Protein 1
Amino acid sequence: MTMETETQSQKAFHVDVGNLLAVNPFHSFPSLPASRDELVKECLQEGTKLVQAVADSLFNLPSTEDVDGPLVKLPPPTTKLPREKHLPKPKPLTKWEEFAKKKGIQKRKKEKVVWDEQTGTWKRRFGYDRVNDDKDIPIIEAKMTDEPGVDPFAKRQDDKKKRVEKQEKNRLQNLKQAAKIGALPSHVQLAATALPITGTQAPPKKVTKDELGNVAGMAATSTASGGKFDRKLPGEKPAKKQGKHRKFLPVVEGSGIGSREKEQTESVLNKLISKHSHEILNVGKAVTMYNVKKEKKSRNKRNQEGKSSSATNKLKPKKQLQKKTGKKGPVSSKKGKAK
Amino acid sequence: MSNNEQTLRFCSSAIMMRIKTPKNGRVRRELEKRAPKLVETGKKTLILQGTKTSGTLNGVLSEIYHLKKGGAVRFTRKNDNIRPFESGGEASLEFFSLKTDCSLFVYGSHSKKRPNNLVIGRMYDHHVYDLVEVGVENFKSIESFNYDKKMAPRVGSKPFIAFVGEGFENVDELKHLKEVLLDLLRGEVVENINLAGVDRAYVCTAISLNKVYLTHCALRLKKSGTVVPRMELVEVGPSMDLVVRRHRLPNEGLRKEAMRTAKDQPKKKVKNVSSDAIEGTIGKIYIPDQKVGDVALPNKAKGVKRERREAKKKEANERASKKQREESE
């Protein structure tokens, strides 16, 4: 929408009311103004002129009164800008729709509720309490064509399952066709779950991140140089345990049993017979246990002394004698040995 | 987005495909919002930064985010694998654009060769469409302007945009910059606008062959004799000098495809209206059945009054008869 404003130099601005945009293609700075402030002032002046031009056309548009203020219907913008997404493609006809079009079959609107003869009520066409439900059939009469030994109720269920599967297959085919053109509906996504495997249709097992890391390491060690000189990808961790995993004694060492083998057998035997049993016994813990027990006994004795004397007097000296020959003996001897 | 799905497995002949549909209404509505439409409304902007940013650049990015508050996404981490002008360095940008559904992006970075660098780009179908690289000089932030706070433009109002200068017609780079700036500053495309709510304007002046002065102003509408008020611009917002450094135009095929529009919108079906050759336009009106008995009568209807009087009389009679019976007993 070009609007001519009669300015002094008779120049026209390009005004696009739909975008509230105005362009002045004729202004130029013959020489840049000396100071920044003057530049800013001149820019604002020119800007004001342009904004005034847009406002002139905007406020002259027919307006309707609204609660907040006058509402104006903007004309469509004239400057063309590129879209952000592609144009939506019209969805293709499904196989049934094509067939129906060819045969001239019209879509009929179905009622929500249907009259059920058996119960004599209005029931839904599908869903919870529906008209011709499989579980409501009490008796199925046998026909001449029926084979003996075939359960007709199970047969009905199987037939229904097959029909549902066929319908799902057809739906998937229709969606695949739409995806091929690029007109898949926005809320549907098709995902390939598995790549085709010849033979069985078993889906491949999901491999975890750690397993993949291990596999990479294993594959590297199978190279001639043991994976030492392979170029590593960014983010690849080094192999977990490098070098030999087990250490074996040399086959031939000297006459008879070698020193290293002797060490091995000695450590095993010692563990079994517990020669260095001080290493097995926790000395500190034993001492604490003994001390705790002693304190408990002394506490009990003091309480008993306070409460009654006759019964315990007989026992007292005996107890004391027993205490002295307590665990102190072996502990002290072991202490000596440990050092 | 793919958290709640309903999966239907089916063994097809060659590849096992799975139909994923959202189980949630909210997810379904989100997907529909992101689907391509015939007529497009506003574009969302993604604002992010590279490995190094300067203080001024941080200010620029945050002020652009403030100006576009409703339709912008701000990333604050540094992204060192984004190089918009290199062929491989756009993958991350395209991924972000896909995930946040943004088709405009502003990428800021600072280096010795290109100080205070801003790359403004657009996407088509979440692939880079075109890019403009500008340097920011003489940046003045919102805080440094003194103005009457009552006039401050409100968030989300539609701005007036003004381009001044012959450079915008003659110089290629400035032409491209003009288009990109228009896209960035425009906001939502609306059909109706409230005249009381216009309060901001962007002024863009071409100072030299590659320099543009951009400023954001508040509008004051002053009384004039006519319907049209007199406009007054007061600088409020950020102002900066943009120096065009590099730009990349879209290739022709892509540009043609992006500029395509739907020729005519399918006319909305008006219900209960049909047109005939003989009688012209006919409309059907459906009137519900009148319930004559339940209609509310006005208060002072004579009949109603009489009924009340009679009812009262009846009651009185009944009471009297009761009393007589009691006395007799």
Protein 2
Amino acid sequence: MRLFVSEGAPGSLPVLAAAGRARGRAELLISTVGPEDCVVPFLTRPKVPVLQLDSGNYLFSTSAICRYFFLLSGWEQDDLTNQWLEWEATELQPALSAALYYLVVQGKKGEDVLGSVRRALTHIDHSLRRQNCSFLAGETESLADIVLWGALYPLLQDPAYLPEELSALHSWFQTLSTQEPCQRAAETVLKQQGVLALRPYLQKQPQPSPPEGRAVTNEPEEEELAILSEEEIAMAVTAWEKGLESLPPLRPQQNPVYSRLRQWNTLYLCGTDEYGTATETKAMEEGLTPQEICDKYHIIHADIYRWFNISFDVFGRTTTPQQTKITQDIFQRLLARGFVLQDTVEQLRCERCARFLADRFVEGVCPFCGFEEARGDQCDKCGKLINAVELKKPQCKVCRSCPVVKSSQHLFLDLPKLEKRLEEWLGRTLPGSDWTPNAWFITRSWLRDGLKPRCITRDLKWGTPVPLEGFEDKVFYVWFDATIGYLSITANYTDQWERWWKNPEQVDLYQFMAKDNVPFHGIVFPCSALGAEDNYTLVSHLIATEYLNYEDGKFSKSRGVGVFGDMAQDTGIPADIWRFYLLYMRPEGQDSTFSWTDMLLKNNSELLNNLGNFINRAGMFVSKFFGGYVPEMVLTPDDQRLLAHVTLELRHYHQLLEKVRIRDALRSILTISRHGNQYIQVNEPWKQIKGSEADRQRAGTVTGLAVNIAALLSVMLQPYMPTVSATIQAQLQLPPPACSILLTNFLCTLPAGHQIGTVSPLFQKLENDQIESLRQRFGGGQLEETLDLKAKTSLKPTVAETGTTAGPQQIQALMDEVTKQGNIVRELKAQKADKNQVAAEVAKLLDLKKQLAVAEGKPPEAPKGKKKK
Amino acid sequence: MAAAAELSLLEKSLGLSKGNKYSAQGERQSPVLQTNNGPSLTGLTTIAAHLVKQANKEYLLGSTAEEKAIVQQWLEYRVTQVDGHSSKNDIHTLLKDLNSYLEDKVYLTGYNFTLADILLYYGLHRFIVDLTVQEKEKYLNVSRWFCHIQHYPGIRQHLSSVVFIKNRLYTNSH
């Protein structure tokens, strides 16, 4: 059976905690999916966790999954447990979802949160007291305890929401929370972020109906904004009024990186790692020397980054004298401290080419599956790692003659000896740091299996020479010296490099990579640096992504499937659009898929209709109605609430980016512009401007506030879309200090009387023909390969499609319909048309949206709030 | 149908002679049963499972671990999803999901009639009664299942019998 869980989905907690019960009784595979993935083919709405049984049936209820695990362990059902579980589903869950929604999505605190669950908590406390037992259904922990604990944990793990006076509940909760299965489940699901980890999940949930006794207004905007406390609003207003004065003096810099927006002293570097077998192979293929190949590709890479507007302070390379100097120094220090071993290794040697054959220079028959073209390190068919000498019928890739096994002396980094230091360091570094869960998990699993000595030399010519007698014709293994490249690249950039790299107290090192590189950054390099005992700066935050797939399969250079860096500029799509879409789809937490159709949709819906539309309208109103000067703003309580609301979202943006949740933070930007659009739509400045003096003033306030939100968005956008950001700032003539500093408060940066520039549209619609031809050019429909690839990527649940999948033409047609219908609705509302008529048109619009969602193979979105504009 | 009435109906279906008295509790008017030999029980599905055991028909709760879990899952579905929603949209999503689930099943657990079928039948009755002929045809698998359960000996009691047409009328809509 297979269990699908999702980080940040609360139901995953009890299920993981109970899963241990099934161990040894059934084979259980656990897969992580996104909270919105539709795993169960027959359910319209996404549901996680889900257990797929061996019979093919599904359990999609959290309690039922836990119950099943308990039943497998021989537990028998009883009335009392049934009663607790029914109570949990019908009484506790609604109260708890409301509390979590208020806390996480709406940012409420204290009694506003606790109020909705207090009665349920008291009920548990009383029951525990009345029965005078430590657990809900007796003296031992059982199903009811796990299910209720899992439901309550996200809220109660914050002591503020575990009332002291409920002492029985208190001790029950503490007992369960300290048990190992529960602890582990909590770590996996909440990732040490506490209740914030649930935010992406909760945001997708419909807003809970307000608790009794509270007046319900019919205005959805009112309802959504009314959640802020008075102080929050007052604080937001004060900050807003201070405006430009509160900005700190500007440090000279212009590069679009978040930490620079925060005025943190940042060094941003990257480089090409140029040594190793791959280079030698490629050089041979192209008939160049390794150095020439490196020069050629370094320029290509640098150009790509430049085109994408990635603003490294330095983009360096590893084939430099500094690299040799620093690598050899670290090696000498390791050697002197006894962390280097010597051993003999059996290796394949081609007598005709007179050299040892590194992994990729040899091919043969896979010893595991019999695949004919297995490489020396790994079989492409069965994916198993191979030791080159185990290959059957090995062949030298260059001359095709049969190599012989020869022994060769090599040096090893004594990782077992460094293991303890590594663990101590991790123990100090990890708590409170922002390692991504996969980085942490991979590192931990290496440590759990025990470290083994790792060979750090190779029989190659292209590499950093080994400064030791007897090893003159050998070089360092590329993964020993590639990570040292960061140091040498800095050394080439500034002679003060040691102030960055030997300064762990003051420097916070973030390293970004795909997950396959984690062992080298999380284990091998830290071990080298710790062993060298030279006070090196070690990684504080290891940020690893999952993989990005292409359309239905994988990117593959050899098969010509996918868009690669150097091709992106030939597509005619601006770099900023690429940046936006790739970051929007950034594989954070799970694999994601690049899809042309989706890129078109996101561009046309999010950028064009949401973000671009808002910023353009705000600017146009200033130009058209107020002659290009920002009007006077007289804030009403509604406007003040909007201020507070934008501030709240801005704080979320900061919170997320500080945690390097780049993809989620982008959504905060889009949320703000959605609020902005709604605000304009409700207040209709284009009508007010024609009315009385008071109406005109209202139009001025709305326009002024909107254009200030646009200014804020331009700064928030800077790390994501630097060119677009600069364009907006030029259009609005945003004063220079406000352009490149982002505070945690929303300020009035465009005060009344400020003159803006010429406003023009920011984004272009992507047309279907254009996208379709790009898809064909870069190999979209790889039908013949899908079967093979599905087998390999089966970790992802295959989402059953409902109905027939629509072609991109149909999708485009539907999108046009949605836009058209949306305009009809907007016009009707603007004309204050008859309510029933509006409702009928809205229903049509919703239906069209649903059709569109089905055509795209997505589940229809659960509506947020009650009404949607 | 109030929970107490539904439980009385279930008692008859199970062949339990003595009728229990139920009180109601809380906002949701959850039924409460005062048992002879212990504390009271609260909640529709909890009491229903208790009655099944009283009637010595435990097979209605499922015989394997898997069946037991599936029965409880659909009982939970009954009280959270079927009872929780009354908007037309929600009910249609629910019927659509159920229709797709029942595509390859005779009963909710697959091949065995269980308490889940009984309570879901009781819970859905008020919605199915109101469906148009076209909708019944649209949710063909739900209709087949519902029709089957209402003819199951002793289940329907005084509830109205819903008519399903055997011939398809709207062939184009499929």
